[in-house]
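User: Just a sanity check before I run the rest of the batch. Below are the structure tokens for the first item. I only need the designed sequence back.
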């Protein structure tokens, strides 16, 4: 019985290790401390931090990573939708096929810092969003840029 319990705890801990996620559409380096939710109904990819917020945000994860594939749209439309819904927006970089944004947003009355990498491909526009509760941003800052930089799309 103790052996099974130890094995289960080890498997659960391993799920939060860094790993490379590769599909036929994209690849991404999931950072340590995040759990990849398999077959998420709302996103192409979804991962969340082990930790929850505190106080009023105690039911929210401290950080999340999402990938969405948006069809029948343009990169500029996706960028503009993000800009119009955020309280603050900084355009980090932009080319004809890629864009990076940093935003200050509100989710469930909590301040969230979000980092986007948007990539236009033949089979759609891919939007990567790495978001952290603003009060916990420093805990995740060293994982954000490597995650954004690791994201690549395979055009089909």
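Assistant: Here's the designed sequence for the first item:
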């Amino acid at each position: 019985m103790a052996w099974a319990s130890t094995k289960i705890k080890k498997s659960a801990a391993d799920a939060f290790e860094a790993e490379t996620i590769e599909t036929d559409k994209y690849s991404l380096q999931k950072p340590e401390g995040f759990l990849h939710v398999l077959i998420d109904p709302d996103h192409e990819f979804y991962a969340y931090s082990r930790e929850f917020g505190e106080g009023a945000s105690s039911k929210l994860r401290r950080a999340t990573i999402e990938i969405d594939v948006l069809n029948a749209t343009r990169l500029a439309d996706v960028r503009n939708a993000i800009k119009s819904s955020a309280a603050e927006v900084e355009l980090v970089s932009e080319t004809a096929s890629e864009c990076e944004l940093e935003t200050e947003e509100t989710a469930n009355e909590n301040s969230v810092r979000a980092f986007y990498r948007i990539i236009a491909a033949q089979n759609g526009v891919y939007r990567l969003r790495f978001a952290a509760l603003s009060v916990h941003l420093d805990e995740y800052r060293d994982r954000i840029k490597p995650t954004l930089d690791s994201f690549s799309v395979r055009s089909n």
